[in-house]
TrEMBL record:
<comment type="similarity">
    <text>Belongs to the binding-protein-dependent transport system permease family. CysTW subfamily.</text>
</comment>
<feature type="domain" description="ABC transmembrane type-1">
    <location>
        <begin position="75"/>
        <end position="294"/>
    </location>
</feature>
<feature type="transmembrane region" description="Helical">
    <location>
        <begin position="146"/>
        <end position="165"/>
    </location>
</feature>
<dbReference type="GO" id="GO:0005886">
    <property type="term" value="C:plasma membrane"/>
</dbReference>
<keyword id="KW-1003">Cell membrane</keyword>
<dbReference type="InterPro" id="IPR005672">
    <property type="entry name" value="Phosphate_PstA"/>
</dbReference>
<keyword id="KW-0813">Transport</keyword>
<dbReference type="InterPro" id="IPR000515">
    <property type="entry name" value="MetI-like"/>
</dbReference>
<feature type="transmembrane region" description="Helical">
    <location>
        <begin position="276"/>
        <end position="297"/>
    </location>
</feature>
<feature type="transmembrane region" description="Helical">
    <location>
        <begin position="120"/>
        <end position="140"/>
    </location>
</feature>
<keyword id="KW-0472">Membrane</keyword>
<keyword id="KW-0812">Transmembrane</keyword>
<feature type="transmembrane region" description="Helical">
    <location>
        <begin position="21"/>
        <end position="42"/>
    </location>
</feature>
<dbReference type="GO" id="GO:0035435">
    <property type="term" value="P:phosphate ion transmembrane transport"/>
</dbReference>
<protein>
    <recommendedName>
        <fullName>Phosphate transport system permease protein PstA</fullName>
    </recommendedName>
</protein>
<dbReference type="GO" id="GO:0005315">
    <property type="term" value="F:phosphate transmembrane transporter activity"/>
</dbReference>
<dbReference type="InterPro" id="IPR035906">
    <property type="entry name" value="MetI-like_sf"/>
</dbReference>
Length: 307
């Protein structure tokens, strides 16, 4: 090899290394901007709302007096809405993802569905609120209820669950499928006994990320008519008489944590701003806890899988 060719190769390698370094620095700076913004906001909420976090804050209803106001109806409403969201979106999303990846024929119709599912993951949440207002509230007559809110947020995270399920299935090595088919397993046995169990860590990560997004959404909940001030709890889902289940809570009025924060931040008194900061701090901690659970589940499930 001639000397000038070696010099050209060294020049190309040097240029690529410089480009890699610049890209790494740009990515690190972008990451630090996001981290610093989060740390700043979290620190401000911690400084302003820490004093308000006590047992009474969790057990009191909202009040016109800031010192007596709490988030009881808000956190209970958030939990019930998230329950409906999980029950409506997770099974349907996983089933749809498995079908599209493993069973659906490869034709223009499947391609069109895949494109629309991917695009729906980026649609603004207010669009889902308007859709739910027309379909669930007026057409189906569910009203401004927990059921409507849960189904709305379920639609919101459904594309995320579908996409994460498909990506988790694609990440499974091909020899898993070939080995299962090689010993005579049917397609259903391959999917149910091998693919879905191996893909569960990735699926769970996508599910928790979607739920973390849903718990902080405000626009679609406001659109369907969530209450900004509520001093009662929905009926209990569990009763002491047979059949021990009560579904009246599904059609009850409700509020959620973001709505309660919005109500408090709209008031000029400083004490209500502290309440909003305390509620925001709790909401962030709930979101971080959900993401921590996702990381822990992924770690535990991956440890139990041997390829």
């Amino acid at each position: 090899m001639k000397a000038n060719e070696l010099d050209q190769i060294r020049s190309v390698i040097k240029t690529n290394k410089r480009a890699d370094l610049i890209f790494a620095l740009a990515g690190f700076l972008a990451l630090m901007v996001g981290v610093m913004a989060f740390v700043t906001l979290f620190g401000e909420m911690l400084a302003n709302g820490w004093e308000r976090i006590n047992p009474d804050f969790f057990s009191n209803f909202p009040s016109r007096r800031a010192a007596n106001a709490g988030i009881l109806s808000a956190w209970v409403g958030s939990l019930l809405v998230m329950l409906v969201t999980a029950l409506s979106a997770i099974p349907l999303g996983i089933a749809a993802g498995v079908y599209l990846e493993e069973y659906a024929p490869k034709n223009w119709m499947t391609d069109l569905i895949e494109i629309n599912v991917t695009n729906l993951a980026g649609v603004p949440s207010i669009v889902y609120g308007l859709l739910a207002l027309g379909v669930f509230v007026y057409t189906f007559g569910f009203g401004q209820s927990i059921l409507t809110a849960g189904l709305t947020l379920g639609l919101l995270i459904l594309p995320v669950v579908i996409v994460s399920t498909r990506e988790a299935l694609r990440a499974i090595p091909i020899h898993i499928r070939e080995g299962a088919y090689g010993v005579g397993a049917t397609q259903w046995q391959v999917v149910s006994d091998h693919l879905v169990p191996y893909a569960t860590p990735g699926i769970m990560t996508g599910v928790i990320i979607g739920m973390s997004r849903a718990i902080g959404e405000t626009a679609p909940i406001i659109t369907i008519g969530a209450l900004t001030f509520i001093a009662f709890l929905p009926p209990s889902p569990i009763t002491d008489t047979a059949p021990f289940l009560n579904f009246e809570w599904l059609f009850s009025g409700f509020t959620v944590m973001p709505i309660q924060m919005f109500n408090w931040t709209s008031r000029p008194e400083e004490a209500f701003q502290q309440n909003a900061a305390a509620a925001g701090l709790i909401l962030v901690l709930m979101t971080l806890m959900m993401n921590a659970i996702a990381i822990w589940l992924r770690y535990r499930l991956r440890k139990s899988i041997s390829w």
